[in-house]
Amino acid sequence: MAGVLVQALAAATEEVTGEILGWPGSQVHACEGGKLVVTLESEDPSFIVDRITRLQHMEGVVSAVLVSEHSTPLAAANEVIPHDLLPQDPP
What we know:
By secondary structure, the chain is of the alpha+beta class. It has helices at 13-21, 45-57, and strands spanning 2-8, 26-32, 35-40, 61-69.
């Protein structure tokens, strides 16, 4: 998953938002004054890179900057963490 901050021209915000929402695994979480908070999800890192590149070259977009990235193998989502490995409260 990648978090991307997109700055779009005010007049293009609706069109940019619509295109992003058309991509699988993409969400727009906030939009104000041409600033969009976007997440891109995929198990394929090249998908994320491709989408950020598309954002950076999209008409009406001033900038698209990767602000966070997190990747975990899908199998790790079902991993059980033993109780003795969990952080303990201080005494």
